[in-house]
């Protein structure tokens, strides 16, 4: 084989490799602002505005500065579920201390029958995942029964850890409601950055009810999901984040937060 031919084939191989990398770079990435461990430590303020966050995706979950309620991003709209149960569209100037969003491009759509509990619903979702070491964005739109959600009142300094603050959550319930579960499923390898497993928020079709999901059952619905293999993490540039102890293993605190939610709601673990 001539050296010239070898060089041409080597160059072609580089071009194919570059094209492959370029294609991967165009895949939707899950954009993460801050970390779950920072929130557990009491980092409740960030610099990122909702206007800036919306440029990163149209689907996702999070909270607002001061831990003021729950963020639900669905179909490009960013909802703010307050601790009094009210729902409003967030202002572009509102800020978030923690958020997970992406451009939602579902690759699978599956009709779902009844599921008697949130764990049962998650078991149905598990059947569609394949590789559980990936991140997933999951939308479940349908008719829900016995749904309970929560929102935490806005906090004031000095901020207490989330395990303490979560005890002040307000819980809301509906016997039956049509709406959408907006979920991020994170693999175990994401500990510290995200909540391993499922994390669900909800928004009703009439946009009057929502929040962080504590428990529910599905009457019928449709699941759409997107597998995500790219993660983009941006960290806050404030003193609270800089001082937060993120060397500490906060798994026990996360379990305590979940237990507090379970005890107060009396239903399924979030």
TrEMBL record:
SUPFAM superfamilies: AF0104/ALDC/Ptd012-like. Residues 1-24 form the signal peptide. It catalyses: (2S)-2-acetolactate + H(+) = (R)-acetoin + CO2. Pathway: Polyol metabolism; (R,R)-butane-2,3-diol biosynthesis; (R,R)-butane-2,3-diol from pyruvate: step 2/3. GO terms for molecular function: acetolactate decarboxylase activity. It is an enzyme of class 4 (lyase). Its EC number is 4.1.1.5. Residues 246-270 are annotated as: Disordered. Pfam families: AAL_decarboxy. The keyword Lyase applies. Keywords: Acetoin biosynthesis, Decarboxylase, Lyase, Signal. CDD domains: acetolactate_decarboxylase. PANTHER family: ALPHA-ACETOLACTATE DECARBOXYLASE (PTHR35524:SF1). NCBIfam families: acetolac_decarb. Belongs to the alpha-acetolactate decarboxylase family. This is Alpha-acetolactate decarboxylase. It comes from Massilia violaceinigra.
């Amino acid at each position: 084989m001539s050296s010239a031919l070898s060089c041409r084939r080597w160059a072609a191989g580089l071009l194919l490799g570059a094209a492959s990398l370029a294609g991967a770079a165009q895949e939707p990435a899950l954009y993460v602002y801050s970390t779950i461990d920072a929130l557990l430590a009491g980092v409740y303020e960030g610099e990122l505005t909702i206007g800036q966050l919306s440029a990163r995706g149209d689907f996702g979950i999070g909270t607002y500065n001061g831990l003021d309620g729950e963020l639900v991003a669905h179909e490009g709209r960013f909802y703010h579920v307050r601790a009094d149960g009210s729902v409003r569209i967030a202002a572009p100037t509102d800020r978030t201390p923690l958020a997970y969003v992406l451009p939602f491009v579902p690759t699978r759509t599956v009709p779902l029958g009844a599921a008697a509990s949130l764990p049962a619903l998650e078991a149905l979702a598990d059947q569609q995942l394949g590789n559980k070491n990936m991140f997933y964005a999951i939308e479940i739109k349908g008719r829900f029964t016995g749904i309970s959600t929560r929102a935490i009142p806005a906090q004031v300094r000095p901020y207490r850890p989330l395990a303490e603050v979560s005890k002040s959550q307000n819980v809301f319930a509906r016997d039956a409601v049509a709406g959408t579960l907006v979920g991020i499923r994170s693999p175990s390898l994401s500990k510290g950055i995200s909540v391993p497993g499922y994390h669900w928020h909800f928004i009703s079709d009439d946009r009057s009810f929502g929040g962080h999901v504590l428990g529910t059952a599905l009457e019928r619905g449709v699941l759409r999901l997107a597998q995500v293999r790219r993660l983009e993490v941006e960290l806050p540039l404030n003193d609270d984040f800089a001082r937060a102890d993120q060397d500490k293993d906060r798994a026990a605190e996360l379990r305590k937060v979940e237990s507090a939610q379970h005890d107060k709601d009396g239903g399924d673990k979030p």
